[in-house]
Amino acid sequence: MDIISLRQSAEASLPQMLDWLRRMVEINSFTTNTEGVNQLGALTAECFAELGFRSESVPSDDPTHGSHLFLSRGPSDKKPIVLVTHLDTVFPPEEEVQNDFRWLPEGNRIYGPGTVDIKGGTTLIWLMLRLLRESSPDLFESTHWMIAANSAEEVIGADFARKTTARCPQGAHAVLVFEGGPHEKDGWHLVTARKGRAEYRITSHGRAAHAGSNHALGINAVVELSRILPAVSALTNPQKNLTLNLASMHGGTVLNRVPHEAVAELEMRAFEPAALAEAGEALESFTQRTAAGAEINVECIGRTQAWPGGRDTDALYRAWEKAATQMGISTVAEQRGGLSDANYLCTLGPTIDGLGPSGGNAHCSERSADGSKLPEYVEKDSFVTKAVLNVLAVNVIAAQQV
Question: Which molecular function GO terms apply here (predicted)?
Fold first, then answer.
């Protein structure tokens, strides 16, 4: 494929793509703003309709969330190439107003809610598909494409994975996730693995008593819980890429009462499922009756499977690596500790993440006068480079199914 022609085509389509992005950013789509999320879903369906995509809006299992969006075109008897994005952001409407956080171009940066996470990724999918339709029309028409947009990715809406899987009964030819892909000095970063997560609650049951007249009769649940927390925190193991974060602790009621209960909550993350399982067993061993008589209980309250990468992901990455070489740029395979829909959808087929544009400060809406705080932004010039890179690589993997 002629890279110069692809770049020229991408540059020509960039103004229209940026107009779609502006319209999307101007819609508040905070996860629980169901009206906004659904409005964005309708606009996204309109955006892709000109490329021949049929839309399906599917209600979330959680009534406080908007509807998931599935867009598809091409022969349904083939395994789809699933292009993954999401509709929600982390910014409530009042926060956007308070911080005057809105669409704001400044040089090469465009600030605004969702510009990089992930409305910029959604519009990059549009730009990539438009280039594929122009440069490889037969391949574009003969490929089964599915765009899957989660309405609640920022809170990891697990039902989205079930609904996506139900629409891929044969699995997927590839799962391509358009979370942001940073551009650093060492190259364009692509994500080839993500940590899994296990969440735990530790509860200490003591004995209440009057703090003044019967202090000795009480068993202080806060104190007893605090005794074990240093050992719990010490389960972090950098050699195994295992992190344990004690995120919250609370207990007791009023100052004149020996607290009868205290609770701590934490999460653990690791790339290897075995490392999480081993740490979970160690954590559960803290279930005990303390010397003072408190009952310590440990329970797992949630899990997210790891996406450890592997041979299939490595093969996908090589397609992008080869495409980068053709363009005279370089790529970097990155393992990320953060979660994405790749954690849930990687079982459908070979998966790669970080295919979206470059930007920064995701999840931040603040701007300080001295410039030490800047809100979320996307780098405008990254769209063309990333679109061409994705087109070259996707052209190769789509052709493998023809």
Answer: carboxypeptidase activity; metal ion binding
pLDDT, one tens digit per residue, over 117-150 is 999 999 999 999 999 999 999 999 999 999 999 9
SS (H, E, C) 58-81: ECCCCCCCCCEEEEEECCCCCCCE
Last residue of a domain, one of 304, 324, 342: 304
Whether residue 49 sits in one domain with residue 177? yes
Strand 187-194 relative to strand 331-336: parallel, antiparallel, unpaired?
Answer: parallel
pLDDT at 401 over 80: no
Residues 6+ apart with CB under 8 A from 285: none
- Distance from C-alpha of 149 to C-alpha of 3, rounded to nearest angstrom: 29
Q: Map residue 142 onto helix, strand or coil.
A: helix
Domain count, the chain: 2
Q: CA 165 to CA 154: how far, in whole Å?
A: 19
What's the burial of 64, exposed, middle or buried (CB within 10 Å: 0-12/13-18/19+)?
A: exposed
Q: Determine which helix (DSSP H) or strand (DSSP E) holds 166, and give its type and residue range.
A: helix 159-166
